[in-house]
Amino acid sequence: MPLGLTLSKGLEDLLGHAADSAQISSLLSYLELLTKWNSSYNLTAIRDPQEMITRHLLDSLSVLPWMGEGELLDAGTGAGLPGLPLAIMRPQMTVTLLDSTGKKIRFLRHVKRQLALKNIYPVQARLESWQPESAPASIISRAFSSLADFCSASRHLLQHETRLLAMKGKYPKSELEDLPAWVKVDSVEKLSVPGLQEERHLVIMSVRI
User: Fold this and answer.
1) How many CB atoms lie within 10 A of CB 125?
2) φ, ψ for residue 74 (rounded to 5)?
3) Pair 197, 93: CB distance under 8 Å
C-alpha cells in the first residue's frame, strides 16, 4: 500500500474524519527526512517506512484526544517523537523538543527549516537540568525507562496544574506502584493505534496537592 494511503487511512481511524491534506503532506515529508537521515545518524531502529507510519507517526498521534491547551514539552524526544507529529496536527500548540544528543537536535532543526514549522523548538539539554523561562503546561515522554524516573527528572518544572503524560506499552502495574507519594495518577488510558496489535497505554499524572 502507498505510504500516503496507509497514513491517510490510519489518521481517519484515529480522528474519526479525513485528515487535512497539508498535514498529511507534512507528516510524509518528515518521514522522508527521517528515512534519509537515519542511514547515517541512526535515529531509529525501525527502517521500513510502512512500519514507521504505524510505530512512529500513528503511535505518536494516538494520544491526540488527551492533548490539552498550552505549551507541550516532549522530554527525550529522540527523532521528534511524539512531539513533532503532534505539532504538525496541532499547529496552534507550541512544542519544545528536548533531547541531550546533539545529532538528534541537528536533525530536528533541519526538519523545522524544511517543513517551515513555526511551533516547534528543538533544544539540546537534559530534562533534569533544563531551566526554561516558563514552565510547560504538559510534559510528555515516549522513551523514559520508568514512570518514577520521568516524574523525578521533571519535578523542578512541575506546578499544580502541570500534567505529566507517559506513553507506555503494556499496563505498567509495577511502575505505578513504585511512584513517589507526591505523584497523583489521574488516569491510565488504553490507546488504540491503527495497524498495531500490541498494547499501548497513556499514564496521565500530576502533582498531588
Assistant:
1) 15
2) -100, 105
3) no
Alpha carbon of 205 to those of 127, 182, 186: distances in Å?
17, 10, 5
Sequence-distant (6+) residues with CB within 8 A of 154 are 75, 127, 139, 164
Beta bridge partners of 183: 207
Burial class (CB in 10 A: 0-12, 13-18, 19+), 84: buried
Handedness of CA 187, 173, 57, 191 (dihedral sign): negative
pTM for the complete prediction?
A: 0.97
Provide the H-helix boundaries in 17-146: 21-41, 49-52, 59-61, 83-89, 102-115
Are 27 and 88 a contacting pair, CB within 8 Å? yes
pLDDT tens, residue by residue, 73-132: 999 999 999 999 999 999 999 999 999 999 999 999 999 999 999 999 999 999 999 999
What type of residue sits at position 88?
Answer: I
> Largest Cα–Cα distance of the chain, in whole Å?
50
- Answer whether 87's CB lies under 8 Å from 95's CB: yes
Domain 3-207 CATH class label: alpha beta
**How many Å from the N-terminal Cα to the C-terminal Cα in the chain?**
50
